[in-house]
Design goal:
526 residues, alpha+beta, five-stranded antiparallel β-sheet, 14 strands, 51% helix, transferase, EC 2.7.13.3, Sensor-like_sf
Protein backbone atom coordinates (compact mmCIF):
# COMPACT_ATOMS: atom_id res chain seq x y z
CA UNK A 1 0.00 0.00 0.00
CA UNK A 2 2.92 2.37 0.67
CA UNK A 3 3.89 2.17 -2.99
CA UNK A 4 0.38 2.79 -4.24
CA UNK A 5 -0.24 6.01 -6.13
CA UNK A 6 -2.16 8.79 -4.41
CA UNK A 7 -5.00 8.25 -6.89
CA UNK A 8 -5.27 4.54 -5.96
CA UNK A 9 -5.16 5.31 -2.24
CA UNK A 10 -7.85 7.91 -2.75
CA UNK A 11 -10.00 5.45 -4.74
CA UNK A 12 -9.68 2.68 -2.13
CA UNK A 13 -10.39 5.13 0.69
CA UNK A 14 -13.42 6.50 -1.14
CA UNK A 15 -14.65 2.98 -1.89
CA UNK A 16 -14.38 1.95 1.77
CA UNK A 17 -16.16 5.14 2.76
CA UNK A 18 -18.95 4.53 0.23
CA UNK A 19 -19.33 0.93 1.44
CA UNK A 20 -19.54 2.05 5.08
CA UNK A 21 -21.96 4.83 4.18
CA UNK A 22 -24.12 2.48 2.08
CA UNK A 23 -24.17 -0.11 4.88
CA UNK A 24 -25.18 2.52 7.41
CA UNK A 25 -27.91 3.89 5.15
CA UNK A 26 -29.19 0.37 4.43
CA UNK A 27 -29.30 -0.46 8.13
CA UNK A 28 -31.14 2.79 8.89
CA UNK A 29 -33.62 2.11 6.09
CA UNK A 30 -34.10 -1.44 7.37
CA UNK A 31 -34.79 -0.25 10.91
CA UNK A 32 -37.10 2.42 9.57
CA UNK A 33 -38.98 -0.15 7.50
CA UNK A 34 -39.26 -2.39 10.56
CA UNK A 35 -40.54 0.44 12.72
CA UNK A 36 -43.01 1.48 10.05
CA UNK A 37 -44.25 -2.09 9.69
CA UNK A 38 -44.79 -2.52 13.44
CA UNK A 39 -46.42 0.90 13.71
CA UNK A 40 -48.68 0.09 10.79
CA UNK A 41 -49.59 -3.29 12.28
CA UNK A 42 -50.28 -1.69 15.68
CA UNK A 43 -52.53 0.97 14.13
CA UNK A 44 -54.37 -1.66 12.05
CA UNK A 45 -54.96 -3.98 15.02
CA UNK A 46 -56.17 -1.05 17.11
CA UNK A 47 -58.64 -0.15 14.36
CA UNK A 48 -59.92 -3.76 14.11
CA UNK A 49 -60.30 -4.14 17.89
CA UNK A 50 -62.02 -0.74 18.16
CA UNK A 51 -64.42 -1.68 15.36
CA UNK A 52 -65.38 -4.89 17.24
CA UNK A 53 -65.71 -3.05 20.54
CA UNK A 54 -68.06 -0.45 19.01
CA UNK A 55 -70.20 -3.02 17.20
CA UNK A 56 -73.72 -3.21 18.84
CA UNK A 57 -73.86 -6.91 17.95
CA UNK A 58 -70.80 -7.59 20.07
CA UNK A 59 -72.25 -5.63 23.02
CA UNK A 60 -75.52 -7.55 22.75
CA UNK A 61 -73.74 -10.91 22.36
CA UNK A 62 -71.50 -10.53 25.43
CA UNK A 63 -74.61 -9.85 27.51
CA UNK A 64 -76.37 -13.01 26.24
CA UNK A 65 -76.39 -16.31 28.19
CA UNK A 66 -73.96 -18.02 25.74
CA UNK A 67 -71.69 -15.37 24.05
CA UNK A 68 -69.32 -17.86 22.35
CA UNK A 69 -72.07 -19.35 20.18
CA UNK A 70 -72.81 -15.91 18.73
CA UNK A 71 -69.30 -14.37 18.64
CA UNK A 72 -67.01 -17.23 17.47
CA UNK A 73 -68.48 -17.54 13.92
CA UNK A 74 -68.49 -13.77 13.54
CA UNK A 75 -64.85 -13.41 14.72
CA UNK A 76 -63.69 -16.32 12.53
CA UNK A 77 -65.28 -14.73 9.45
CA UNK A 78 -63.67 -11.32 10.13
CA UNK A 79 -60.24 -12.92 10.81
CA UNK A 80 -60.33 -14.67 7.46
CA UNK A 81 -61.47 -11.62 5.54
CA UNK A 82 -59.04 -9.13 7.12
CA UNK A 83 -56.03 -11.44 7.40
CA UNK A 84 -55.86 -10.99 11.18
CA UNK A 85 -54.20 -13.82 13.11
CA UNK A 86 -56.57 -13.62 16.04
CA UNK A 87 -59.56 -11.71 17.39
CA UNK A 88 -60.22 -12.64 20.99
CA UNK A 89 -63.34 -11.38 22.73
CA UNK A 90 -63.27 -12.03 26.47
CA UNK A 91 -65.06 -11.36 29.69
CA UNK A 92 -63.62 -8.87 32.17
CA UNK A 93 -62.16 -11.81 34.10
CA UNK A 94 -60.08 -12.83 31.00
CA UNK A 95 -62.40 -15.72 30.02
CA UNK A 96 -62.23 -16.13 26.23
CA UNK A 97 -65.42 -16.06 24.17
CA UNK A 98 -63.54 -16.42 20.83
CA UNK A 99 -60.14 -17.68 19.67
CA UNK A 100 -58.35 -18.72 16.47
CA UNK A 101 -58.08 -22.17 18.04
CA UNK A 102 -61.60 -23.16 19.23
CA UNK A 103 -60.10 -25.43 21.89
CA UNK A 104 -58.78 -22.35 23.67
CA UNK A 105 -62.31 -20.92 24.11
CA UNK A 106 -63.17 -20.72 27.79
CA UNK A 107 -59.53 -20.45 28.78
CA UNK A 108 -57.80 -17.44 30.30
CA UNK A 109 -56.52 -14.67 28.02
CA UNK A 110 -52.76 -14.19 28.25
CA UNK A 111 -51.78 -10.52 28.11
CA UNK A 112 -52.18 -7.13 29.74
CA UNK A 113 -55.78 -6.04 30.42
CA UNK A 114 -55.40 -3.52 33.23
CA UNK A 115 -55.47 -0.45 30.97
CA UNK A 116 -58.40 -1.76 28.95
CA UNK A 117 -60.33 -2.51 32.15
CA UNK A 118 -59.75 1.11 33.04
CA UNK A 119 -61.44 2.15 29.80
CA UNK A 120 -58.22 2.99 27.87
CA UNK A 121 -57.26 1.09 24.68
CA UNK A 122 -53.80 -0.48 24.82
CA UNK A 123 -51.29 -1.79 22.22
CA UNK A 124 -48.44 -4.14 23.10
CA UNK A 125 -46.02 -6.75 21.83
CA UNK A 126 -46.74 -9.91 23.83
CA UNK A 127 -46.14 -13.67 23.59
CA UNK A 128 -49.39 -15.59 23.81
CA UNK A 129 -50.68 -18.99 22.73
CA UNK A 130 -49.86 -18.23 19.06
CA UNK A 131 -46.38 -16.94 19.86
CA UNK A 132 -45.07 -13.33 19.88
CA UNK A 133 -47.67 -10.98 18.45
CA UNK A 134 -48.60 -7.33 18.06
CA UNK A 135 -51.98 -6.92 19.73
CA UNK A 136 -54.45 -4.21 20.66
CA UNK A 137 -56.86 -4.52 23.64
CA UNK A 138 -59.99 -2.33 23.60
CA UNK A 139 -62.82 -2.25 26.18
CA UNK A 140 -66.48 -2.98 25.24
CA UNK A 141 -68.58 -0.48 27.14
CA UNK A 142 -72.30 0.02 27.77
CA UNK A 143 -73.96 3.39 27.11
CA UNK A 144 -73.16 4.38 30.69
CA UNK A 145 -69.43 3.64 30.07
CA UNK A 146 -69.35 0.46 32.06
CA UNK A 147 -66.74 -2.05 30.80
CA UNK A 148 -68.58 -5.32 30.17
CA UNK A 149 -66.03 -7.13 27.97
CA UNK A 150 -62.67 -6.79 26.19
CA UNK A 151 -61.63 -7.23 22.55
CA UNK A 152 -58.04 -8.16 21.55
CA UNK A 153 -56.99 -8.21 17.90
CA UNK A 154 -53.48 -9.06 16.78
CA UNK A 155 -51.06 -10.46 14.24
CA UNK A 156 -48.07 -12.62 14.97
CA UNK A 157 -44.53 -11.28 14.65
CA UNK A 158 -43.93 -13.65 11.75
CA UNK A 159 -46.76 -12.00 9.82
CA UNK A 160 -45.28 -8.55 10.60
CA UNK A 161 -41.84 -9.74 9.47
CA UNK A 162 -43.29 -10.91 6.16
CA UNK A 163 -44.72 -7.42 5.60
CA UNK A 164 -41.41 -5.88 6.59
CA UNK A 165 -39.44 -8.16 4.29
CA UNK A 166 -41.63 -7.08 1.42
CA UNK A 167 -39.97 -3.66 1.67
CA UNK A 168 -36.42 -5.03 1.66
CA UNK A 169 -36.03 -5.11 -2.17
CA UNK A 170 -36.52 -1.33 -2.23
CA UNK A 171 -33.92 -0.97 0.53
CA UNK A 172 -31.42 -3.13 -1.38
CA UNK A 173 -32.15 -1.22 -4.60
CA UNK A 174 -31.40 2.10 -2.88
CA UNK A 175 -28.22 0.67 -1.34
CA UNK A 176 -27.04 -0.75 -4.69
CA UNK A 177 -27.74 2.58 -6.42
CA UNK A 178 -25.82 4.53 -3.77
CA UNK A 179 -22.90 2.09 -3.95
CA UNK A 180 -22.79 2.21 -7.76
CA UNK A 181 -23.01 6.01 -7.91
CA UNK A 182 -20.36 6.41 -5.20
CA UNK A 183 -18.02 3.96 -6.95
CA UNK A 184 -18.38 5.78 -10.30
CA UNK A 185 -17.78 9.19 -8.72
CA UNK A 186 -14.76 7.85 -6.81
CA UNK A 187 -13.36 6.35 -10.01
CA UNK A 188 -13.75 9.61 -11.92
CA UNK A 189 -12.14 11.62 -9.11
CA UNK A 190 -9.27 9.14 -8.79
CA UNK A 191 -8.53 9.36 -12.52
CA UNK A 192 -8.48 13.15 -12.30
CA UNK A 193 -6.20 12.92 -9.26
CA UNK A 194 -3.93 10.49 -11.11
CA UNK A 195 -3.51 12.99 -13.95
CA UNK A 196 -2.93 15.85 -11.49
CA UNK A 197 -0.31 13.94 -9.44
CA UNK A 198 1.30 12.18 -12.46
CA UNK A 199 0.52 8.81 -10.87
CA UNK A 200 2.81 9.40 -7.87
CA UNK A 201 2.21 8.18 -4.35
CA UNK A 202 2.18 10.15 -1.11
CA UNK A 203 5.74 9.18 -0.13
CA UNK A 204 7.01 9.94 -3.62
CA UNK A 205 5.30 13.33 -3.56
CA UNK A 206 6.69 14.02 -0.10
CA UNK A 207 10.25 13.13 -1.13
CA UNK A 208 9.88 15.09 -4.36
CA UNK A 209 8.73 18.17 -2.46
CA UNK A 210 11.64 17.93 -0.01
CA UNK A 211 14.19 17.47 -2.81
CA UNK A 212 12.74 20.18 -5.02
CA UNK A 213 12.46 22.59 -2.12
CA UNK A 214 16.11 21.93 -1.25
CA UNK A 215 17.14 22.50 -4.85
CA UNK A 216 15.01 25.64 -5.03
CA UNK A 217 16.79 27.23 -2.09
CA UNK A 218 20.31 25.95 -2.81
CA UNK A 219 20.84 27.11 -6.40
CA UNK A 220 22.77 30.36 -6.80
CA UNK A 221 20.49 31.67 -9.55
CA UNK A 222 17.12 33.19 -8.78
CA UNK A 223 14.21 30.88 -9.55
CA UNK A 224 10.55 31.97 -9.65
CA UNK A 225 7.39 29.99 -10.45
CA UNK A 226 4.30 31.84 -11.71
CA UNK A 227 0.79 30.68 -12.54
CA UNK A 228 -1.23 31.52 -15.65
CA UNK A 229 -2.37 34.83 -14.11
CA UNK A 230 1.22 35.95 -13.62
CA UNK A 231 1.08 35.55 -9.81
CA UNK A 232 4.29 34.52 -8.07
CA UNK A 233 3.51 31.06 -6.68
CA UNK A 234 6.97 30.26 -5.33
CA UNK A 235 10.49 31.69 -5.52
CA UNK A 236 13.78 30.97 -3.84
CA UNK A 237 15.93 33.12 -1.58
CA UNK A 238 18.18 34.31 -4.40
CA UNK A 239 15.19 35.52 -6.44
CA UNK A 240 13.90 37.37 -3.37
CA UNK A 241 17.27 39.09 -2.99
CA UNK A 242 17.61 39.97 -6.70
CA UNK A 243 14.04 41.28 -7.06
CA UNK A 244 13.76 42.83 -3.57
CA UNK A 245 10.85 40.55 -2.64
CA UNK A 246 9.64 39.45 0.81
CA UNK A 247 10.33 35.80 1.75
CA UNK A 248 8.25 33.32 -0.20
CA UNK A 249 5.37 31.61 1.63
CA UNK A 250 4.26 28.31 -0.05
CA UNK A 251 0.57 28.26 -0.89
CA UNK A 252 0.20 32.06 -0.91
CA UNK A 253 0.55 33.37 -4.49
CA UNK A 254 1.56 37.02 -4.73
CA UNK A 255 0.28 39.13 -7.67
CA UNK A 256 3.28 40.55 -9.53
CA UNK A 257 1.68 44.01 -9.39
CA UNK A 258 1.69 43.95 -5.55
CA UNK A 259 5.35 43.16 -4.82
CA UNK A 260 7.16 46.15 -6.35
CA UNK A 261 8.78 44.50 -9.36
CA UNK A 262 10.31 46.60 -12.11
CA UNK A 263 7.89 47.23 -15.03
CA UNK A 264 9.86 45.13 -17.53
CA UNK A 265 10.03 42.06 -15.26
CA UNK A 266 6.38 42.47 -14.26
CA UNK A 267 5.43 42.54 -17.96
CA UNK A 268 7.51 39.42 -18.65
CA UNK A 269 5.92 37.43 -15.80
CA UNK A 270 2.40 38.53 -16.79
CA UNK A 271 2.92 37.65 -20.47
CA UNK A 272 4.02 34.05 -19.85
CA UNK A 273 6.10 34.18 -23.04
CA UNK A 274 9.36 32.37 -23.63
CA UNK A 275 12.48 34.46 -22.93
CA UNK A 276 16.14 33.58 -23.55
CA UNK A 277 18.91 35.62 -21.88
CA UNK A 278 16.89 38.83 -21.77
CA UNK A 279 18.58 41.74 -20.01
CA UNK A 280 16.44 43.64 -17.49
CA UNK A 281 17.70 46.64 -15.55
CA UNK A 282 16.26 47.43 -12.11
CA UNK A 283 17.14 50.37 -9.91
CA UNK A 284 20.26 48.67 -8.58
CA UNK A 285 20.90 45.56 -10.66
CA UNK A 286 21.41 44.26 -14.19
CA UNK A 287 19.62 40.91 -14.52
CA UNK A 288 19.70 38.24 -17.22
CA UNK A 289 16.33 36.48 -17.29
CA UNK A 290 15.21 33.23 -18.92
CA UNK A 291 11.60 32.05 -18.91
CA UNK A 292 9.97 28.83 -20.10
CA UNK A 293 6.36 27.59 -19.89
CA UNK A 294 5.77 24.82 -17.32
CA UNK A 295 4.09 22.09 -19.42
CA UNK A 296 3.09 18.74 -17.81
CA UNK A 297 4.42 15.49 -19.24
CA UNK A 298 0.96 14.75 -20.64
CA UNK A 299 1.39 17.68 -23.03
CA UNK A 300 -1.68 19.61 -21.93
CA UNK A 301 -1.80 23.39 -21.63
CA UNK A 302 0.92 25.07 -19.50
CA UNK A 303 0.40 25.40 -15.78
CA UNK A 304 2.45 28.60 -15.62
CA UNK A 305 6.07 29.58 -16.18
CA UNK A 306 9.49 28.88 -14.67
CA UNK A 307 11.76 31.93 -14.60
CA UNK A 308 15.49 31.89 -13.84
CA UNK A 309 17.33 35.07 -12.94
CA UNK A 310 21.10 35.68 -12.98
CA UNK A 311 22.80 38.73 -11.52
CA UNK A 312 25.06 40.43 -14.08
CA UNK A 313 25.52 43.66 -12.13
CA UNK A 314 29.20 43.10 -11.38
CA UNK A 315 29.80 41.83 -14.89
CA UNK A 316 28.20 44.97 -16.34
CA UNK A 317 30.28 47.08 -13.98
CA UNK A 318 33.40 45.39 -15.28
CA UNK A 319 32.13 45.92 -18.82
CA UNK A 320 31.70 49.61 -18.04
CA UNK A 321 35.25 49.80 -16.78
CA UNK A 322 36.49 47.98 -19.88
CA UNK A 323 34.45 50.37 -22.01
CA UNK A 324 36.00 53.30 -20.14
CA UNK A 325 39.47 51.91 -20.74
CA UNK A 326 38.56 51.38 -24.39
CA UNK A 327 37.36 54.99 -24.60
CA UNK A 328 40.60 56.24 -23.11
CA UNK A 329 42.56 53.97 -25.43
CA UNK A 330 40.69 55.30 -28.43
CA UNK A 331 41.29 58.83 -27.17
CA UNK A 332 45.00 58.17 -26.84
CA UNK A 333 45.03 56.65 -30.31
CA UNK A 334 43.20 59.69 -31.66
CA UNK A 335 45.61 62.01 -29.90
CA UNK A 336 48.58 60.00 -31.17
CA UNK A 337 47.23 60.14 -34.72
CA UNK A 338 46.57 63.89 -34.42
CA UNK A 339 49.97 64.64 -32.89
CA UNK A 340 51.65 62.49 -35.52
CA UNK A 341 50.06 64.63 -38.25
CA UNK A 342 51.11 67.79 -36.47
CA UNK A 343 54.63 66.45 -35.93
CA UNK A 344 54.88 65.65 -39.65
CA UNK A 345 53.80 69.22 -40.34
CA UNK A 346 56.51 70.63 -38.03
CA UNK A 347 59.17 68.34 -39.52
CA UNK A 348 58.15 69.40 -43.05
CA UNK A 349 58.38 73.10 -42.09
CA UNK A 350 61.85 72.53 -40.66
CA UNK A 351 62.95 70.66 -43.78
CA UNK A 352 61.73 73.62 -45.83
CA UNK A 353 63.96 75.85 -43.68
CA UNK A 354 60.94 77.60 -42.21
CA UNK A 355 61.90 77.27 -38.57
CA UNK A 356 59.99 80.31 -37.39
CA UNK A 357 56.67 79.00 -38.74
CA UNK A 358 57.43 75.56 -37.29
CA UNK A 359 58.05 77.03 -33.82
CA UNK A 360 54.90 79.16 -34.02
CA UNK A 361 52.78 76.17 -35.12
CA UNK A 362 54.13 73.95 -32.31
CA UNK A 363 53.59 76.62 -29.67
CA UNK A 364 49.99 77.31 -30.74
CA UNK A 365 49.18 73.58 -30.86
CA UNK A 366 50.63 73.05 -27.40
CA UNK A 367 48.56 75.90 -25.97
CA UNK A 368 45.31 74.61 -27.48
CA UNK A 369 45.90 71.04 -26.30
CA UNK A 370 46.88 72.05 -22.81
CA UNK A 371 44.01 74.52 -22.28
CA UNK A 372 41.25 71.90 -22.02
CA UNK A 373 43.33 69.68 -19.76
CA UNK A 374 44.17 72.54 -17.44
CA UNK A 375 40.54 73.67 -17.21
CA UNK A 376 39.22 70.21 -16.44
CA UNK A 377 41.95 69.31 -13.97
CA UNK A 378 41.47 72.61 -12.13
CA UNK A 379 37.71 72.15 -11.84
CA UNK A 380 37.32 68.40 -11.09
CA UNK A 381 39.24 66.56 -8.44
CA UNK A 382 38.53 63.10 -9.88
CA UNK A 383 41.25 61.80 -12.26
CA UNK A 384 38.90 59.26 -13.87
CA UNK A 385 36.52 62.03 -14.96
CA UNK A 386 39.40 64.22 -16.11
CA UNK A 387 40.85 61.44 -18.23
CA UNK A 388 37.38 60.62 -19.60
CA UNK A 389 36.69 64.21 -20.68
CA UNK A 390 40.10 64.67 -22.29
CA UNK A 391 39.68 61.44 -24.14
CA UNK A 392 36.13 62.30 -25.26
CA UNK A 393 37.39 65.64 -26.55
CA UNK A 394 39.98 63.87 -28.70
CA UNK A 395 37.37 61.34 -29.84
CA UNK A 396 34.97 64.13 -30.84
CA UNK A 397 37.73 65.89 -32.75
CA UNK A 398 38.55 62.69 -34.64
CA UNK A 399 34.89 62.20 -35.59
CA UNK A 400 34.61 65.76 -36.80
CA UNK A 401 32.37 66.88 -33.95
CA UNK A 402 32.58 70.03 -31.91
CA UNK A 403 32.55 69.26 -28.19
CA UNK A 404 31.94 72.25 -25.93
CA UNK A 405 32.86 71.47 -22.31
CA UNK A 406 31.81 73.95 -19.64
CA UNK A 407 32.91 73.25 -16.08
CA UNK A 408 31.82 75.99 -13.67
CA UNK A 409 33.73 76.34 -10.44
CA UNK A 410 35.55 73.63 -8.55
CA UNK A 411 33.48 70.47 -8.11
CA UNK A 412 34.07 68.14 -5.16
CA UNK A 413 33.18 64.54 -6.05
CA UNK A 414 34.01 63.02 -2.66
CA UNK A 415 31.31 60.52 -1.67
CA UNK A 416 30.39 59.75 -5.30
CA UNK A 417 31.46 56.48 -6.86
CA UNK A 418 33.70 57.50 -9.80
CA UNK A 419 32.54 54.44 -11.73
CA UNK A 420 28.95 55.71 -11.59
CA UNK A 421 30.07 59.16 -12.76
CA UNK A 422 32.00 57.58 -15.65
CA UNK A 423 28.90 55.54 -16.55
CA UNK A 424 26.67 58.62 -16.53
CA UNK A 425 28.93 61.05 -18.42
CA UNK A 426 30.45 58.50 -20.78
CA UNK A 427 27.15 56.97 -21.93
CA UNK A 428 25.44 60.35 -22.32
CA UNK A 429 28.34 61.68 -24.41
CA UNK A 430 28.43 58.52 -26.56
CA UNK A 431 24.69 58.88 -27.12
CA UNK A 432 25.10 62.56 -28.01
CA UNK A 433 27.98 61.83 -30.42
CA UNK A 434 25.81 59.33 -32.33
CA UNK A 435 22.87 61.77 -32.46
CA UNK A 436 24.98 64.78 -33.57
CA UNK A 437 26.92 62.89 -36.23
CA UNK A 438 23.97 63.05 -38.65
CA UNK A 439 23.24 66.77 -38.11
CA UNK A 440 24.58 69.78 -39.97
CA UNK A 441 26.03 71.53 -36.91
CA UNK A 442 27.65 68.33 -35.56
CA UNK A 443 28.01 69.79 -32.09
CA UNK A 444 27.77 68.39 -28.58
CA UNK A 445 27.75 70.34 -25.30
CA UNK A 446 28.67 69.19 -21.80
CA UNK A 447 27.99 71.38 -18.78
CA UNK A 448 28.99 70.47 -15.23
CA UNK A 449 28.24 72.98 -12.48
CA UNK A 450 26.97 73.33 -8.95
CA UNK A 451 23.32 74.15 -8.26
CA UNK A 452 21.03 75.02 -5.37
CA UNK A 453 21.08 77.78 -2.81
CA UNK A 454 23.93 76.21 -0.88
CA UNK A 455 25.53 74.53 -3.89
CA UNK A 456 24.33 71.20 -2.53
CA UNK A 457 23.83 69.63 -5.96
CA UNK A 458 25.86 68.93 -9.08
CA UNK A 459 24.08 69.39 -12.42
CA UNK A 460 25.34 67.54 -15.49
CA UNK A 461 23.80 68.58 -18.81
CA UNK A 462 24.55 66.91 -22.14
CA UNK A 463 23.00 68.32 -25.31
CA UNK A 464 23.42 67.59 -29.01
CA UNK A 465 22.46 69.10 -32.34
CA UNK A 466 20.64 65.97 -33.43
CA UNK A 467 16.99 65.60 -34.46
CA UNK A 468 15.70 65.41 -30.89
CA UNK A 469 13.23 62.91 -29.44
CA UNK A 470 9.61 62.08 -30.23
CA UNK A 471 6.90 62.18 -27.58
CA UNK A 472 6.92 58.39 -27.37
CA UNK A 473 10.72 58.34 -26.87
CA UNK A 474 10.54 60.96 -24.13
CA UNK A 475 8.37 58.60 -22.08
CA UNK A 476 10.44 55.44 -22.61
CA UNK A 477 13.99 56.67 -23.23
CA UNK A 478 15.40 55.29 -19.98
CA UNK A 479 13.81 51.84 -20.24
CA UNK A 480 15.83 48.89 -21.46
CA UNK A 481 16.01 48.64 -25.25
CA UNK A 482 15.31 52.35 -25.95
CA UNK A 483 17.75 54.94 -27.26
CA UNK A 484 17.72 58.48 -28.58
CA UNK A 485 18.31 57.04 -32.04
CA UNK A 486 15.01 55.13 -31.85
CA UNK A 487 16.71 51.73 -32.17
CA UNK A 488 17.33 49.07 -29.59
CA UNK A 489 20.79 47.79 -28.75
CA UNK A 490 23.74 48.70 -26.58
CA UNK A 491 22.70 52.36 -26.53
CA UNK A 492 19.39 51.31 -25.00
CA UNK A 493 21.27 49.38 -22.32
CA UNK A 494 23.58 52.37 -21.83
CA UNK A 495 20.71 54.74 -21.06
CA UNK A 496 19.16 52.20 -18.71
CA UNK A 497 22.51 51.90 -16.92
CA UNK A 498 22.68 55.71 -16.70
CA UNK A 499 19.31 55.75 -14.94
CA UNK A 500 20.48 53.00 -12.61
CA UNK A 501 23.70 54.85 -11.73
CA UNK A 502 21.81 58.10 -11.12
CA UNK A 503 19.43 56.34 -8.73
CA UNK A 504 22.34 54.73 -6.89
CA UNK A 505 23.80 58.21 -6.29
CA UNK A 506 20.43 59.46 -5.06
CA UNK A 507 19.90 61.83 -8.01
CA UNK A 508 17.37 62.48 -10.74
CA UNK A 509 17.53 62.47 -14.52
CA UNK A 510 15.32 64.11 -17.13
CA UNK A 511 15.36 64.63 -20.90
CA UNK A 512 13.83 67.39 -23.03
CA UNK A 513 14.05 68.68 -26.60
CA UNK A 514 16.16 71.84 -26.96
CA UNK A 515 17.15 71.97 -30.61
CA UNK A 516 18.31 68.40 -30.03
CA UNK A 517 18.08 66.09 -27.04
CA UNK A 518 19.09 67.63 -23.71
CA UNK A 519 19.79 65.25 -20.80
CA UNK A 520 19.87 66.81 -17.32
CA UNK A 521 21.23 64.93 -14.31
CA UNK A 522 21.11 66.34 -10.77
CA UNK A 523 23.21 64.64 -8.10
CA UNK A 524 23.59 65.50 -4.42
CA UNK A 525 27.08 66.94 -3.94
CA UNK A 526 29.42 65.03 -1.67
Amino acid sequence: MRNWSLARQFFIGQLVFVLALTTTISWVLYLDAEDNTFDSASARMLAVATTFANDPFVLEAVQSPNPSDLLQPYAAEVMDELGVDFVTIMDTDRTRYTHRNPSEIGGQYIGSVEQALGGVPHVELFTGTLGPSVRAIVPVTTPDNTVTALVSAGVTVDTVSIARNAQLPLVWLIAAGALTAGTIVSLVLSRHLRRATLGLGTEQLSRMFVFYDSVLHSVRDGLALTNLRGDLVLYNDQAAALLNLPPSVPGEPKPASDVGLSPSIRELLASGRRAVDEIHVTDDRVLVVNQEPAVPASGTKPLGTVTTIRDHTELEALSDEVQTMRTLTEALRAQTHEHANRLHTIVSLIELDRGTEALEFATRDLQQSQQLTDEVVAAIDEPFITALLVGKAAQANERGLHLDIDVAGTLETHGMDPRDLVTIIGNLLDNAFDAAASSEERSVSLSIHTAGDDAGFVDIEVGDSGPGLSEAQLGTIFTLGSSSKGTAGTRGLGLALVRQAVHRLGGTIAVTNDGGALFTVRLPAG
